[in-house]
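agent> call fold_tool(seq_1)
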Amino acid sequence: MQKLAGRGDEVVAGSFDLVIVGAGFAGLYMLHLARRMGFSAVVLEAAPGVGGTWFWNRYPGARCDVESMQYSYSFSEELQQEWHWSERYASQPEILAYANYVAWKFDLFCDIEFNTRVLAAAFQEDDCRWVVSTDQGMRYRAKWCVMATGCLSAAQIPSIPGLDSFQGPVYHTGSWPHEPVSLAGQSVGVIGTGSSGIQVIPEIAAQAGHLYVFQRTPNYSVPARNRPMDAEYESSWKAEYAQRRKKARAMSAGLLWDQGDKSALAVSPEERLQEYERRWAAGGTGIMAAYSDLLQNADANETVAEFVRGKIRNVVERSEVAELLVPVDYPIGAKRTCADTKYFETFNRENVTLVDHRASPIREMSSNGITAGSEFFRLDSLVLATGFDAMTGAISKIDIVGRRGLNLKEKWLNGPNTLLGLMTAGFPNLFIVTGPGSPSVLTNMIPSIEDNVQWIADCISHISEEGADFIEATGPAEETWMGEVRRAAEGTLFVQAKSWYLGVNVPGKPAVFMPYAGGMPAYQRICEEVAADGYRGFAIGTR
């Protein structure tokens, strides 16, 4: 890439139509579409490779909880037909290999700047251009800036007194080392029992001398029943991919599964139990699709919650441990329901100790261990399975300044405000892929990414054809949309749990339910209507 003259310590790397931040699935597809439309584009990626979340999350047991045949791009029939998944639920190495294959197949690597972390982005009002600055001392100018930074890509490090004094290695599941990590024979502590904790704990238990699991909140989890990909099943999908993708997008979560159309309370207890048992045996989170009202009606939800609690109690041999692992104070599905491989069975091992953070809160770390309650636990290594600053964390790490010096972090101080999760008022020509206010994490992420990126591409094409300089969300439209996001959440049980959906896992972060809970079909219909109505709610103009 040709370097142009710079000012001060920075060098202007070039001018583009689009600067795309992030080379995960969103950034790769945005680059592909930009190229196809004839726009010049560059992707800036902090990592040395593509994959986004799947580049960093390399911890043992890391795996997708959406079936492989659905957790993939749909934009290329050729890609769908030629790629082969080896398992029902793909592991992190295979998903990363898929991302690299996509980048190779569509010749994307040449327009990606790796090892380049974006530090700041500033809107220049005089010429309606974004200037994006990186840690490499480079500046990139572009008319359009697309934040493809991901919903789960900013690792959340807990504030534990003395953490820095611990002499052993500390690993975070969201930024796992690329070189092999051996915990064989060690005394290991794992903090966190969310999705990543549920996946990594059985793997560590199998090699550690002793594993201490520090749990604050027990989590609902169902068996994944992972297995090698069935050739007949794969063939059936590939023969009907277009039809099945269309059906999936017509479902609330963007997933094609067996969605029940009755209330859980409209059938007999015997019939309900039989249905839950059937889905439990099949594996995966499809148990939450057994009935139509499991995420809206508390009484209906309790029927499946109690079923899962019963399964936990049956698996965990020591009753006192089982009761600590049983969630009782929030509805199932209000936090992300996990799919596991022998997670609860792990607590039957003699080398595994569950430490209840509620009864024995973590007080401090020292050079060789951790104190929880009145007890000291000697540790050789510590694993933080403490999740992410979800949905806003990655974008908030960038100093983004819009019109009249408006800073995005300051604007979002009391919670993120967007129009459709795609743009935010005061920041013209700045797009966010699967941002707060979109269904994103409540859906199958890759189809949601594809739909958002296609909308952005169509919008850029429209504005360019019109000869306009900018498009910007208006304040009133943004307020109206965020009100709709709140109403959609209040119609569900999601708001009854202290989850990362509300950002409560991050100290000081305002408790605001961030994703749109109205479902993927309703959201997509609204997006299409807004575009068809001349981008209603957005201001379009010239400088």
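agent> call fold_tool(seq_2)
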Amino acid sequence: MKKQITIYASILFLLFTAAIIILQFMRLDLFHQWFPAESAQGTPVETMSTEENPTEGEELQVYVHKNDTPLSKDAVENLEYAMDYAKVSYQEITKKEMEELTPSPYNVLVLGGEHSKEWPYEEIRSFVEKGGRLYIASRFINADWNELLGLEDVEDFLDDIYGLTFEKEVFPGYMDLGEDSQLFSHSIADVELAESAEVYISAEDHPILWANSYGEGKVMFWNTSSVTEKSSRGLMLQALSFLPPTFVSSQAGIKVMHIDDFPSPVPSGTTDVIQRDYDLTVEDFYSEVWWEDMKRIGEGEDVIYTGYLIGTYQDTMDMTAEDLIETRRFPMLYFGRKVLKEDGEIGLHGYNHQSLVTADEPIDPEYGYRPWQNQGEMEESLNRVNELFDYYFKEKGVHSYVPPSNVLNETGVRALHEVFPELEAVSGLYTGDKETGAFLQEYEPNSEFPSIYHFPRISSGYGETDEERFVQIDAIANFGVFAHFIHPDDVLDPYRSGDSGWPEMRQSYEDMLHYIHDHYTHLKGMRQTDATKKMKQYQASVIDVTYQDDQVVVQGENLLSPSTILVRVNSGSLETGSFDYGVVESLGESGTLYQVTLNQPYAEIKKKDEAL
């Protein structure tokens, strides 16, 4: 009996000792170092090319002419960006070359508003009458053009017109914006339309976009100054697509979701809204409620999260790398590993939440941020947070960066490149106010450091406003990218949450993502580094389109595999279903728009024989 007791005591002692060793093992973070968090490997970008010879038929020719006036120049350049992103080729022409255009339903002349008296009107009128297409990219007044443009009468300009009402479906998903919306402020011509004009969009009962048939040709007219806004690019491209008999544009098919300030220091205690709905501390709410909901929604709606860690919210550099490592154990080990486990990745938001700008670089003073003394001080802070990153996510590396408050300037970019030579993407904003220091971007390499790619975010928040939804749809209508970001602590902030609790915010967030997932099935959820690679390859690809009476022939080099194109058919319709080259599906309710998934780099997309 005594021998048995001795054995049991020895076993208990060994178990107790083992427990202590395991606790010390985990306390010293050896566990996560020996068993690092695993995440999915980067997805390779697959491509396809054709060896087919060019096919006979017509090619779409878009001829662009810009005036020097700001409205004309900015509106036409906005359309040029839209065409570049959608891989629709165009060429700029002079006034003299306008006089020599060949009338064809696949020849489109694009003009900006204003200075219409300088254009060769009679030649343009004849071009349209004999079958050419005319696209007016912004409003102007010239009574001599009334018949061509589909006007009975025109008065003076009207300013401060707001909102948008869709009289026809321009692209599925656009919603009407009320007169109280500030997203678009229109300066328009006060016009009376002729019976031949067909209104697509209006605002406050005034026509904003209309088409007019003239002779054998067609005119599309933008009666607004708001076409200089980036958030109108998708609209401008889709308006262009209604002019020729058939129109093909390309889609990148990308969906990314950023979580800024995640992982980050977690506030202690609780807040009124968390206490009201859950009776939990902030830390427990994040871990037991918020993250579990985010994970469930992400899995259900094909969203992969890229989190952007931050070391401290202090505006000083008091915390050493060792301090950060010691005090950020919970968010790094718990939330960081959770993101990686869901096939996500961790990028960098900063050592602290101070934007990387010096005193002589612009930033909105309302942020109350402390400017950095110089590039060297920035680099020191980045090195400290890099040690934190490397300690908990060893061998992952920093490949993407989001600037705090989306503010960044040249000095900060140089500091980032110096400390993180492997950095692939910097994500600021697609739209915003540059005067406040916002880092506004196009999808393109950095001019000074081409290894860094600019991948701007298009929208933000938990899906509460029509304006945010609108800019999402516009980017999808243009080039097929959904790039969104949120903050975990939005629910803690009465201003950012609109006094809503997490149940309401969660529902609107899920509704937003469900709509995107359900209506734009070609957008694939991916991590930021994979999205960067895919977007770069999409832009590098070459696509050729030939239009024939009974089919559209598409062929290309280094196309994404699979690729997605949109086909607008204004004369006839497409055969839908599965084919050797891929799948053709009707998109939206207009009956003219199709989504085509190409699994081969050469496709003969047949039109229906309407006589059958």
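agent> summarizing second result for user.
The longest strand covers residues 151-162. The first helix runs from residue 2 to 27.
agent> awaiting next instruction.
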